[in-house]
Amino acid sequence: MRMSNEMREIRNQLNTALDVLEEAVASQDVEKAQNMRNEVEKLKNLYAIAEKTFNDRQAMKIDDDGEKGEKGTSYNSQLFYKAVSGGNLSDDEINAMVKAKNDYKNTYTEGNKKDGGYTVPDELSEEIFSSIKSEESVRNLVGVENVNSITGTRIFRKGTANKLYNTAEASEIKAMNQAEYAPTTYKQHKFAGIMSISNELLEDSFVNFINEITSWLAEAARATENAEILYGAGGENHAQGLISTSGAYQEITAPKTLTIDFFRAVTLSIKSGYRANSSWTMNSLAFDKISALKDQNGRSFIQPDPRTPDAYMLLGYPINVYDIILTDEDNNTVILFGDAKKAYRMFTRKDLGIEFTNIGAGAFESDTLKAKGIERFDGKVFDRDALAIIRNFVVTPLSITSVNNTLGDDITEASLKNLTKAQLMELVEEFEVTGITESSTKNQIVAAILEKIYPSADSSSVANAEA
């Protein structure tokens, strides 16, 4: 974003004032916090005036030909934020937002021309998609093609060419086998969700607002894409799942007793032309089970990849660990081997859509801004010779205690038992608990602390609320 020196200086002052305000709130200094709140508001108003002045000055500049012209205002994340948060827009900014709305209606919603939506600005979209790929995302696994239309067809070649025939001079050349081509048709599916944005967040800072939108859209899009691309049901409303689509690729049933020969046979089940870019893809439980396979010298067959830190190989092929690959209720999971980028293709709209309201969807009643994020994509099985799936691979899940949905702030018996004896003795001193010595057991110390904190007959019910 272009800005004047005055705008930069005011922005620096505003950041400093916000830091002081946060410190005052943290220290519960009400008077100082109120004074700094007033100072922040004054600086925000001053920044808005400086920004309006700068934009007006830019609009009046003379171009290289000496003719008066307006400086075009681009649609970007700053303008996007300013519009949805109710900021005062210049005429140029209003024109840019009107154009953005029309672009959204004409190219994104296609079948539905209602007002209210915007395409997420390009630089914000790039941040969102970078955030998606920075974590466990199918975008790093399969082939991804950005498309602009709601439907389309892609052609790929199947089969293997015969060798050419030995042919004498002036002799008739024999016909070789014809290449086979298979069409794949995609149709964009629309996935959407609503989030609430507090007005306090809108009043806080531009950076926090954009971070919140970026984080939310990235997390929602990543979860949706992972589920659909791996486990989509297909049909009219869903992608073809890479794992869930039965018969899409050759399937291999895992033996009850694992050997390295089995995994070697899996690699050889893929044609040599695909093996050059092949890799294993599995979840952590499958990785752990395979790592228990040892050679005659007691070394695991899973070895570190010397070319890449924190990466591993099996039989010379890289291992991708994706915990988005699920383990079912019978402790069965799947392992993929092959070139997944050739085997499967995701067709995605590069742009994301977003709509806001402060009236509908309960926004008025809750004093919030409602944001509806929209993404469109499809996924199709592509080259069916490029991948093999090992099914019914039995793993041993970890013993995990489920999350407590009624977590509170009270000190509980279960939480105290997670502390060391030294830490418990510190609490004994803090709460002035009597009757405890260095020879007391952990259970005695815990019971004494709870009795001190909850000195009544119902203390046990409070203490064990989370146990």
Number of helices: 16
- What class would the helix/strand composition place it in? alpha+beta
Total beta strands? 15
Strand content: 15-25%
From the alpha carbons, calculate the radius of gyration and give it in angstroms. Answer: 31 Å
**Kindly state the mean pLDDT as a whole number?**
80
Oligomeric composition of the shown chains: single chain
Helix content: 25-40%
Low-confidence runs: 61-71, 110-115, 459-467
Biggest pleated-sheet summary: 7 strands, mixed
Spatial order of the strands forming the largest sheet? 6-15-11-7-10-9-8
- Taking the alpha carbons of the first and last residues, their distance comes to 53 Å
Q: Tell the overall outline.
A: flat
Describe this structure in words.
It is built from 16 helices and 15 strands. The chain has helices at residues 5-26, 30-59, 77-84, 91-108, 122-133, 199-204, 206-231, 260-268, 272-275, 284-291, 340-343, 363-366, 413-416, 421-430, 442-453, 459-463; strands spanning 117-119, 143-147, 151-158, 180-187, 189-198, 250-253, 279-282, 302-304, 312-314, 317-321, 332-338, 344-349, 353-357, 368-381, 387-394.
